[in-house]
User: Fold these one by one.
Assistant:
Number 1:
Amino acid sequence: MNVTITKIRIGNLSVNYAIPLVAEALGMDDDDSKVKSLAETIQKKTEGNPFFMLIFLRSLYDEKLLKYNFGVMKWTWDEDAVNSKIVTENVASVLVNKMNRLQEETQRMLMVASCLGATFRKSAVVEVMKNISRVEMKGSMRSLSGTAATIRSSSTSLLSSDMSNA
């Protein structure tokens, strides 16, 4: 199999590029000025990392700090609440926090699926879940949650070494 891999380096975005990114994500790209303050806050909090900017924007929505107002047909947000929101430091923290907000049954399904590999059949997940008791799964989840800090610190050091080698 002959595959060519091309690396594309994307640096952090300045405010001038953050504004259209946020405007487009919210479908408000007809007038960037409407999202200017939100985009500036997001850019500052994420240091312009495009991935974190979109994740942060999604977390604002998930936490109901960013809402779509059907009465006026536009997105609204509370500037103070957005400004006070804390940004997580790395990808692992973002993913761990997101997974912790999932329902317990969904977490169980993801644990089983992750053990089956990158590709699997839905029926395989269902069959494995039938054969694992809730008690066993809860014990596994508790032991995994204790390793979340280890995952975070490991990914931080991996990300740091990747950045220094770039």
Number 2:
Amino acid sequence: VISFVACCTAQSLYGLALPFLQEYVEPLTPKLWEAIQDSEIRAHDFFLGMGAVASTAAISNIVRVETTFHRQLAEFRPFWKFWGTKVLVSIAFLQMIVFKLPILPFREMSQIHTSLMYSSMLVYECFGVALLHIYAWGAEELWYGDAEPVTPSEELNPLSHNQHSHWLEPRVLGQ
């Protein structure tokens, strides 16, 4: 997990520093800026590879936890919860590698088109994962600590549930 966070942080800092360098380094030392521009694609590919390794390690750790603690997590119903996490981790970097493959339609796409396609797909994929999480993290699970399961009608109107009736009572300071 730390390698994944470190990779995302390094890539973000690089992305933030690049416009700053363009603004202040380009006018002062054009040759340095030219060298930075020439190495930009290599830096992007380096971060892509670093992220793919970190994503793979994170997914491997999730699988290890899932298989090692299978019995202890049985009440937690982890299958879809872990799948949602695996998908989120994998689309962060592994999807961009697919866009770099020399196959149609990706090989004819410019960097701008690739970025737009990646961003657009992320929106739909994250929406799909959100729907998966709605199913996987249902409010009726007993491990949340509720004394009794919540029915769908009580879920929509929390004030109708007995355990929440204290919300309607006046409070006195110190109680």
Number 3:
Amino acid sequence: GYNPPNPNICKINFIYSTPFWRNKGQSGIAFIPPYRCIDNSPADGSIGVLLVMGTPDCNDENIFIENIINSLKSIFGSQVEDPIKIIIHDWSKDILWTGACYSILKPNILHENGFALKYPLGNIHFCGTETADEWIGFMEGAIQSANRCSKEIALSIFQQSNFL
């Protein structure tokens, strides 16, 4: 069978003394291809943390960080240039990582065949991030798929019972 490779994903935490973007009315959420950014600061705002996930666009870590900061600066302003700390985790180099985030499938696999996974086959229901309508390959997609699948199963049980 086809065993998709793990993507090369890095998680970078840019740590600041405060979540300064909140004072500007910004959420801290941004999508700047190929990066995704979220506000990972504690609710009390005791420190500011912008968590960025993405695929490194070069082999030089300093240039990689500089590219991300330049991208974030266009949204959050020049304050992103001065984090008090940067924590990088390259998942592809983690010996305990057996895959996460998303799989890389062959081209057109889900486009051509993914719809078939969304429908039950008798009493077999398919659930998983690849069967989601949105956020395929991510935790959000897995949750969306689980919600859909659990409703399908409940409806199937109800229809097979004597209640109808």
